[in-house]
Structures are given as C-alpha cells and as structure tokens.
Design brief:
With 310 residues, the protein is an alpha/beta fold. An 8-stranded mixed sheet has the order 7-5-6-4-1-2-3-8, sandwiched between helices. Strand 1, helix 1 and strand 2 form a beta-alpha-beta unit. The longest helix has 33 residues.
Length: 310
Amino acid sequence: MKKISIAVPCYNEAGNIEETYRVLKDVLDKLNNYDYEIIFGDNDSKDNSQEILRKLALSDNKVKVILNNRNFGPECNTYNIITSATGDACIFYCCDRQEPVELISEFIKEWENGAKVVWGQKISSNESKLMYFVRGLYYKIIKKFSDIPQYEQCIGFGLYDKSVLEILRTIKNPQPIIRNIIPDLGFKPVILPYKQNIRTCGKTSYNFFRYFDTALNSLINTSKAPMKIMIYTGMIFGFLSFLIGCVYFIYKLLHWNTFDAGIAPIIIIFSFFTSVQIFFLGFIGEYLLAVLDRVSFVKHVIEKERINFD
C-alpha cells in the first residue's frame, strides 16, 4: 500500500489547525488503497498552536508534529517538514487553507500517471487585487531574469515524489525556496490551475519587508543577471565619466580665459555617480550576504521536539 505524506507548515495558526486537520482527513480517508500521514511543522508559534497540535497527535497517530526550537523562517520550516516525510509522495499544503484541498486527489492522479512533481498554479485569487498584482509582477521579474525556467503564481503547493525528496535532502542552500530549487534540479512540474480562496481565520505573518526579502533571495538564488547588469552599467558609466572629464579638460584648454566651469556641474555629476555606486554596492552586499549564509550555514532547522515519529 502506497503512503501519502501531507506537509503542513504553521506559525500562529491556532484558529486554523483543527479545521485544516479535519478537511485533510476527510479527503485522505476517501482515498482507497492509500495510507497517509499528516505532518505539522510549528515554527515556534506564540499562540496556543503547540497545545492544539499535541492534542491532535495524541488523538490520531497519523498526525505527526515537529516543534522548532525557534522561528527559522517559512522556507526552512517547509523544507524541513517535506524532507521529513516518509511517504511515497509528499504534498505541501498551507495551514491557512487558501489553497483548495480538493486538488489533492488530482495531484495523486497525475503522480500515478508518472509525474514526479505536480504543482498548483493560481490563475485568480480572492485576496487583495493589489497584492495579487504585486505578486504577479514579482513572478514576472524573476522569470525575466532567471537563468532557469520559473513558473508564475506557483508557491510550491503540490506533490513531490519520494525520489525528488531524496535529492532535496542533499541540498545545502541555507534559504531552500522549493519553488526555485525544483526547476533548478531540472524537474518539469505538471501544472494544475486553481483559484485561491480568501483566508477565513487569523492573519498572515508576512509583511511587505518579508515579501521583499523573499523576492530578493529568489532573484539572487536563480539569476546572475543583476550582477552582470551592475558590471556592464558600471563600465558604461565609467566610460561616460571619463569622456565627460576629457571634454571638460579640452574645452578648458581651448577657452582658458573665458570658460567658467562652475561648481554646479561638478556637484551634479559627482552626486549622480555616487548614487549609482551606492545602489550597486547595496546589490553586491546582498550577494555577499548570500555567500556568507552558504559558508556559515549549519542546519536548516533545529528541532525542539518530534511527536509520533518512529
């Protein structure tokens, strides 16, 4: 009998955990000839999520719980849960229930037909239109600059074969963004479209700065284009700066007594090139931080406790 693992990351989702468990169990109990496990990974919640998870694990041995020692971020938490799965396939599902649970059976059908990775892709959403537009813009930028194929509006919600999980367990990236890693490994996911539901309970822990940080990490991890742009732009502006200097010098020699260079052009040119340099130095700093993460990285997640694992 094949086994399906469901990976559910959560953080301060006390109002959603029990309902998430119920809807997942309803779907999984209807699957014939499949065993299953539901793995909740709590990222050091500050509400009573851990108490709820302990009760669920006590009442149902198919529920497994991982309690993290601290909040290691959503990417590391998700990665740790998925790579802890013991099933023949693992399905990543968000605890906020914005993704339709009905797609699980469709994921499994595609997997049985030979797909190694099956992803859900948002074609519309009940969330804020502004946020949906911003997310769409983010995906287009990543897709434009990425050195590898990228899939718009795919958050990683989907199914992963155990052979893919074995490869993921060898990844040493300190920021393991699954939706970026899968294409980088050469897997071409089967895409199933869906409409995203609105969050019915609780509030997302993501804010603008966390979204921006994730977007920046995705860009750096998937593309060398920004670094190349900085190099080429630096060369162009450096050459233009040299030409401007030469023109001013020659013009001064030809009109020594009449030419008044003035301080304004100097300030304008200096300010412009200084601002360009500072901007690019910031980008270089992000790359250096990524390098620092890789060389100093020890482990994605430190766990405090595991429940119902053999």
